[in-house]
Amino acid sequence: MDREELLRRFPAHRSKLVAALARLVGVSEAEDLVNETLLRAMAAVEGFRGEAGLGTWLHRIAVNLAYDHLRRQGHDPALPNGVGADLLDIADDDSPDVLEQRQMSACVQKILAALPTAQRQLLIQADVLDQTTAEIARDAGITTGNAKIRLHRARRNLEMALENHCEFHHRDGGVLCCTPKPKTA
Asked: How far is residue 175's CA from residue 29's CA, in Å, rounded to a whole number?
């Protein structure tokens, strides 16, 4: 692949990169980081061997830039800027449903932050960034089977932590709510 081909194919990947980066660093920073991704890709295109798809390669460059950006701001890249909280901040009203969703999000994020970094990163890649296990495996340099096993273990550990720390129930209208379990002495 050369620079000309990259410039021709990049627009097809732009919106997916913006969406992924917006979830990591926020909408305001995502566009700038996508532009930086193109610049980095242009500089490295001669080394692109095509072992991964172009979208996967661009995504890895973009995520690495986002992680660098978060580190410069003093955030843990494995749990960027309150993952998911930005989605709840969109709601302008403070209805009981929205407040409970914010509380549940904060609770789950706290538990997620307590997981080992490698597991936390896997969960974010799979469940926030919507990466496939094949993409995760390529990025980590492991087999797809190994990525599936690691992701399964991470999800199991998150589930166990949630069961130990939270009580889930449905309110009227089927709204899922979470309250912390009382601490036992």
From this structure: 32
Three-state secondary structure of the chain: CCHHHHHHHCHHHHHHHHHHHHHHHCHHHHHHHHHHHHHHHHHHHHHCCCCCCHHHHHHHHHHHHHHHHHHHCCCCCCCHHHCCHHHHCCCCCCCHHHHHHHHHHHHHHHHHHHCCHHHHHHHHHHHHCCCCHHHHHHHHCCCHHHHHHHHHHHHHHHHHHHHHHEEEEECHHHCEEEEECCCCC
pTM beyond 0.90: no
Torsion angle defined by CA atoms of residues 77, 82, 86 and 88, in that order, rounded to the nearest 10 degrees: 150
- Length of the chain equals 185
Q: Which string of b and e fits 54-76 if b means at least 16 CB within 10 Å?
A: bebbbbbbbbebbbebbeeeebe
Report pLDDT digits (tens) over 97-143: 555 556 666 677 778 888 888 888 888 888 877 788 998 888 788 99
